[in-house]
Design goal:
Layout (H helix, E strand, L loop, with lengths): L7 E10 L2 E11 L4 E6 L5 H8 L7 E6 L2 E2 L5 H8 L2 E4 L11 H12 L4 H14 L15 H12 L6 E5 L7 H18 L2 E6 L2 H7 L2 E6 L2 E6 L1 H6 L3 H8 L8 H10 L1
Parallel strand pairs: 3-8, 3-9, 6-7, 7-8
Antiparallel strand pairs: 1-2, 1-4, 4-5, 9-10
Helix pairs in contact: 3-4, 3-5, 4-5, 5-6
């Protein structure tokens, strides 16, 4: 990879479902080692974009280029190999309920390596120790709190020592103290693994706490991509409404921003 090339490059990405345009010509560059936070209301297209970035969703038009390679020009074997260099924490954690926490972390190791079970167990212990869950190795996900399940999902995302980490709403639905703890954990993960992070969220506090750059999505395209300080100072009317509005306290995060973009 050329040092001047972005780690991830998105060009003119379009995606529609049933005649409804979700991504409307999205362009984005993410630099090596950067934390890019994608902000937007529920339904703005940010989760669809994330699925396109990891090759789970094929766009109608446009390209996703990772380290100089168009991922949608790859055959299934090559795309699978590329995905081994990625870690993904899905919204809600998406842990397998029938497996222990350690079993969830060991699963990608069992599928993609030839490590013996004893070594996989050691790796799981190390990864869970990094997120403060070593004592929960033999518990089931149902026995964990919401914040603990998210941390376990973070550990699973790092199981294969990926170069890219993707997170979908990592702090959604959590209390402010737990959410702040997860924000700190994301920063620590990036520093520990020297990875490139892409984080999708609608949580403003978390976004500004972890981002190197912010990308605000509205109606399927980005209206600003810049540093947190530059976004704060933006005079774009939509950005200002997004930053300045104080939604009713009775609405949860997703509902607040949905109301903001639709009223």
């Amino acid at each position: 990879m050329n040092a001047d090339e972005p780690a991830i490059e998105v060009r003119a990405l379009r995606k529609s479902y049933g005649g409804r345009t979700v991504l409307n010509g999205v362009d984005l560059e993410v630099q090596q080692g950067e934390t890019m936070v994608i902000l937007g209301a529920s339904g703005s297209g940010k989760s669809t974009l994330l699925r396109c970035l990891i090759g789970l969703e094929r766009p109608d038009e446009g390209t996703v280029i990772i380290e100089g390679t168009d991922i949608f020009a790859l055959d299934s074997h090559a795309l699978s190999s590329l995905r081994r260099r990625m870690g993904m924490a899905f919204q809600g954690g998406a842990l397998f309920g029938s497996m222990t926490v350690a079993g969830n972390i060991e699963l990608p190791l069992a599928e993609h390596t030839r490590l013996p079970s004893s070594t996989r167990r050691i790796v799981a212990r190390i990864k869970l120790g990094m997120v403060g869950l070593e004592d929960a190795m033999d518990q089931l996900p149902s026995e964990l709190s919401g914040g603990m399940r998210k941390r376990a999902a973070f550990a699973r995302a790092t199981a294969l020592d990926p170069e890219f980490l993707f997170f979908d709403e990592p702090s959604a639905g959590l209390d402010p103290i737990t959410a702040a703890g997860l924000d700190r954990l994301l920063v620590q993960l990036k520093e520990s693994f020297n990875v490139t992070l892409v984080v999708v969220t609608h949580e403003m506090v978390s976004a500004f706490a972890i981002a190197d750059r912010l990308a605000l999505m509205h109606n399927g395209r980005f209206i600003v991509i810049d540093s947190p300080s530059a976004v704060r100072e933006s005079q774009d009317p939509i950005v200002r409404r997004f930053l300045d509005r104080r939604p009713p306290e009775s609405l949860d995060g997703a509902a607040r921003f949905r109301k903001f973009f639709t009223d």
